[in-house]
Structure formats: structure tokens, C-alpha cells
């Protein structure tokens, strides 16, 4: 069967953007002529069991962009999409995509790496930073006190002002890349004890 090159693809090229609940992608495609690129944004997520419905939805598209990891694309779905030529995903690791099935059909899978910035450790993760920001915000009652200050003077009776993490226990369920990074922060000084639930956890933390 002859391959279809970008020059011979029918216009407009059809692109599906999945799970873009807030339509964050919309402003970034305003410069594309409708005659060149037709974009359909889906703000609803089909359940993983609705395979036939997902195939029917995605069948016309040449490009599929996954905004999140909410819609799995297993091998059976990839194989049932004859028009698919390019699969886009956020980040560089999406376990819900059948990469082997894409490779078998020579479908490129492209993602965007996260840049921690000059001088930052390569193991740095913005997700880990955000997770600990939430932990610290909870410990310091940031959300509670923000709401209270907006309804002054009700903030004055609130106690405790914050919770000291020293001496507390930090439990980690699973030590993948993110879990290990979060646990490492705890081990380095945030808490007195860290409970790890993965075999060989100490080796992963270094």
C-alpha cells in the first residue's frame, strides 16, 4: 500500500484534541486557516470501556493530541484508526499510549519535555515541587486563613496557626519517579519518619 505523505494528505487535515476541559488549547490554533487544519476539541472523556465509541469518535482524524492521560489509546484502538498519522501528548511519558502499536505503523509520538531551568538537578520535577507546595499549604492552613482573612475578623480565633512537620510521618504509596522524589524531600528534612511501601525503596532513594 502506498504511503501517504504530508503533501498528499487531504485538506483540511483533521485534528482531535482530547480531554481539554477548559479549552486551553483553543487560543494557540487561531492562526491556522480552517481550510488547512480542522480542529475538534473534546471536553468530555469517554470511559475506557467505551472502545467502540472511542474508535468511532477518532476514526476521521489524522492528528490526535492528548491533553491529559485520561483517554487510554491501547493497541486495539490505534490499529482501528487508519487515518492516524501523528499522536501528540503532554510530557514525555504517557503509559496510556500503545507505543509499540504506533511504532508498528510508523506513527510518530511526540511530547514536550519539562525544562527545570539552568543549574537545576536533572531529577527535578515541577510535579514534586507542586506536591510539596500543597503539603506545606495544608500544614500552614493557607486556604483556611485566606478564606478567613476575606471575612475578617473571623481569622483571629483560628488555631492552630500551623502544623509543624518535624516529627510527623510521611507515607508514600508507590515509588515511581514522582513518588521517590517526594519521599526524598521528606527524608532530607521535612519529616522525622518516612514510610515507604515499595520493595527496595531505600535503594531508590539513594
TrEMBL record:
GO molecular function, one term: oxidoreductase activity
Alphabetized UniProt keyword annotations: NAD, Oxidoreductase
SUPFAM superfamilies: Formate/glycerate dehydrogenase catalytic domain-like (SSF52283), NAD(P)-binding Rossmann-fold domains (SSF51735)
Family per record: Belongs to the D-isomer specific 2-hydroxyacid dehydrogenase family.
UniProt-recorded name of the protein: Putative d-isomer specific 2-hydroxyacid dehydrogenase
Amino acid at each position: 500500500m502506498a504511503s501517504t505523505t504530508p503533501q498528499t494528505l487531504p485538506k483540511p487535515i483533521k485534528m482531535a484534541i482530547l480531554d481539554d476541559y477548559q479549552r486551553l488549547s483553543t487560543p494557540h490554533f487561531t492562526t491556522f486557516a480552517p481550510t488547512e487544519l480542522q480542529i475538534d476539541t473534546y471536553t468530555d472523556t469517554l470511559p475506557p470501556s467505551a472502545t467502540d465509541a472511542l474508535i468511532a469518535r477518532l476514526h476521521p482524524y489524522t492528528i490526535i493530541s492528548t491533553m491529559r492521560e485520561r483517554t487510554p489509546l491501547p493497541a486495539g484502538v490505534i490499529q482501528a484508526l487508519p487515518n492516524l498519522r501523528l499522536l501528540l501528548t503532554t510530557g514525555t511519558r504517557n503509559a496510556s499510549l500503545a507505543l509499540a502499536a504506533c511504532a508498528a505503523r510508523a506513527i510518530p509520538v511526540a511530547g514536550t519535555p519539562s525544562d527545570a531551568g539552568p543549574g537545576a538537578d536533572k531529577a527535578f520535577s515541577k510535579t514534586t515541587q507542586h506536591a510539596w507546595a500543597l503539603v506545606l499549604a495544608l500544614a500552614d492552613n493557607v486556604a483556611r486563613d485566606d478564606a478567613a482573612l476575606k471575612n475578617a475578623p473571623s481569622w483571629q480565633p483560628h488555631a492552630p496557626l500551623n502544623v509543624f512537620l518535624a516529627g510527623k510521618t510521611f507515607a508514600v504509596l508507590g515509588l515511581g519517579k514522582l513518588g521517590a522524589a517526594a519521599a526524598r524531600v521528606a527524608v532530607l528534612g521535612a519529616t522525622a519518619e518516612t514510610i515507604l511501601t515499595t520493595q527496595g525503596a531505600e535503594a531508590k532513594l539513594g
